[in-house]
Amino acid sequence: MPGTRESLEYGEATSFSYDEVKTDVDAAIADLINRYHQAYFFLKHKDWETEHEYRFVVSDERQEPLFVSLEDALVGVCVTENMIPNRIEQITRMATDQKIPAAKISWKYNSSTFCPLNDFAKELDK
């Protein structure tokens, strides 16, 4: 099967030749995914290390979409000062309708300014 390494670090790659995969490309791809799934799906660049997220990786033979309810997943919305003003108004309205905080964050000289856009966000600015 392709590649010889058992793990990858950020920025590393694996290589293989056409001869290694030509007889069964699907099996070769499956082998690579099985071997390196941690790096392919869960390794994060240092720039994003402070972000908290969930990643769902599903391997399924069916072709129809997989439904995952995210009904209560969104806990707040932040926009930047560069966003189009009417888009900020739309997002603020939608967030307010869903009773979640909306705020605008401005960056200047390596510091941020937090500006609540609805009543739900005012509690966060304390």
Question: What key attributes describe this structure?
Answer:
126 residues; alpha+beta; 2 domains; three-stranded mixed sheet; 4 helices; 13% strand; elongated
Describe this structure as you would to a colleague.
With 126 residues, this protein is an alpha+beta fold. The protein folds into two domains: 1-68, no CATH class; 77-125, no CATH class. Helix content is 31%, strand content 13%. It contains four helices and three strands. It has a three-stranded mixed β-sheet. Helix 3 (85-97) links the parallel strand 1 (77-80) and strand 2. It is elongated and about 60 Å long. The protein starts with 17 loop residues before the first helix and ends with a helix.
- Uncertain residue ranges: none
Largest sheet: 3 strands, mixed
The overall strand count is 3
Structural class: alpha+beta
Tally of contiguous helical segments:
4
Global morphology: elongated
Average pLDDT taken over every residue? 81
Largest beta sheet: strand ordering: 1-2-3
Rg, rounded, reads 22 Å
Strand content: 5-15%
The level of helicity is 25-40%
Number of separate domains: 2
Distance between the termini: 57 Å
